[in-house]
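Because showing beats explaining, we let one protein speak, sequence and backbone structure tokens together, and leave readers to judge.
___
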Amino acid sequence: ATLVASNGKITQGMPAFRASREERLKGGLSGDSGMRHRTGSYLITPTPEGATGRAYYIVLDVKVKPAEMMFTGYYDDKFVRTADGWRIKHRTVNRDVAK
């Protein structure tokens, strides 16, 4: 799979995804970043190659009370069917910006 982040950084392949996650979590799954990520409003459209999709997200900071919205955006995805089921082949992360 390929992920294109909102800053243009590209991550490709499972080893790179694992390394990126370890870096973001500073050494593994211990600890709580205090961020919560919610995704919804999925729109999936069939294509000859599989499907495309869009889903909207919101990231919350729960270290403060009440929780505060950090940012919002949406994912543009390309899905393929594999022997193990549907997988995201390519995801572009789009972050909402003020106009």
In short: The radius of gyration is 15 Å. Strands lie at 2-4, 10-12, 35-47, 50-61, 68-82, 85-95. The chain is about 10% helix and 60% strand.
